[in-house]
Write a structure and sequence with these properties.
By secondary structure, this protein is an alpha+beta fold. The chain is 46% helix and 19% strand. The chain is built from ten helices and five strands; from the N terminus they run E-E-E-H-E-E-H-H-H-H-H-H-H-H-H. The longest helix is centred in the last third of the chain and has 14 residues. It is elongated, with a radius of gyration of 20 Å.
Length: 195
């Protein structure tokens, strides 16, 4: 496995770039986000890579950030998503935006990626919702998703197998003033069972 390559960028195309390292030129497929960032940099670049071996081809995919590479690998784990579709999604959305969309079950945002229909977006949410927790969203971005809530009802829902994201989100926009912890747990379970 080739985890990364350090070299000079010789050419940037629409869906790939050429990187020279010790006299060898590597054709590396990538996202628009990475290609734009490569255009700004001079000198040697550190590119995180993933080698895809198929019966009829060998392809190298690479990204300028480790977050983008990690999200690319996660997307490849989703059934019926290949490297081109994963790259297309990463060309449309940043890793943190993809994570937010998954955590909030925002199918519309995920459908912005080329080749991603409703069923594929629903598969992404279903198969990755437990794998993206805490990986890409920084503190500021997380606050945009939901207000912090630290109470016994949230902790109880987490003990029952729900993530902190799900447990906090279920109470967002709901008037819970005056409810006992037991009533909040019942309300949370009712709402979560309908999702």
């Amino acid at each position: 496995m080739i985890d990364y390559i350090i070299g000079r960028i010789n050419y940037i195309g629409e869906e790939y770039f050429l990187l020279e390292n010790q006299g060898m030129g590597y054709r590396i497929n990538s996202s628009t986000n990475t290609l734009i960032q490569l255009g700004r940099g001079d000198g040697e670049q550190h590119i995180f890579t993933n080698l895809i071996v198929r019966e009829d081809s060998i392809s190298l995919y690479g990204f300028i950030s480790e977050d983008e590479m990690n999200m690319f690998k996660l997307l490849l784990n989703v059934s019926k998503i290949g490297p081109k579709v994963a790259c297309g999604i990463l060309s449309t959305l940043r890793p943190s935006q993809i994570q937010k969309a998954i955590l909030l079950k925002d199918i519309g945002t995920l459908c912005k990626g080329p080749g991603v229909g409703r069923k594929t977006a629903e598969r992404i949410v279903l198969e990755l919702k437990d794998k993206v927790k805490g990986s890409f969203v920084d503190e500021e971005s997380f606050d945009e998703i939901m207000e912090p809530m630290d109470n016994e009802a949230v902790e109880a829902l987490m003990v029952l197998g729900y993530s902190r994201y799900e447990a906090q989100r279920v109470f967002q926009g709901t008037d819970i003033s005056g409810l006992s912890v037991e009533d909040m747990i019942k309300l949370g379970l009712r709402k979560l069972s309908r999702q």
